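Q: Sequence in, structure out?
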Amino acid sequence: MTPSILVFLGSERVSGAPLPTRLGARVSSACLRRLADKGVATTQIDPVEVDAPHPFKPLFAYGAGKGPEALDHLADQIRHADGYVMISPEYNHLMSPALSDLLNHFGSSLFSYKPSAIVTYSAGQWGGTRAAVSMRTFLSELGCLPVSAMVHVPHAQDVFHEDGGYRPGVDGDRWDGYFDRTLDQLRWWSEAAARQRCSATDLPKAFVTNPTERNAP
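A: Exactly. Output:
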């Protein structure tokens, strides 16, 4: 089977210092390119293009079928995906507010029993590694367990062009191998989980609106 992967770009910053502003878009393009090379179907989710409501209100709070069109559409995309790539810079040692805000609109019932991959980046030397640590907890609670390998890209502006291609002097083969370690794990688990979801008949019911749906004692 060919898995379907959503690639979440965790940045809304389109102006202001430091430059370049949409550094995450370069990393996202690189991930999309590598997944396409593997024959994986991908869709990029850019929070700038999602008309999410403000102030924050989770989708379930609107009632079934009554949410904003943009959130209902994204919920449908999440529901039908087989796995997720979560791309984030680091803010105060945490994942980006743009990414956490977008994901928090949706419950774990949409993400559960599917894998995710963590990809972080920075303009400096650490590559967002501290944000990645917190993302493991967040994504595990969301239900899309992260694969063990991760991607961290320090000085991303020196690695990628705007289109996600490698800049002159960059060892592209080495970087491709580094990305592949994570993305190949994601594909393997996406395919395995999809087969299991098709055959499983006893999955727990989703927690939607009522706390009793947590089935706690």
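The chain has a mean pLDDT of 90.
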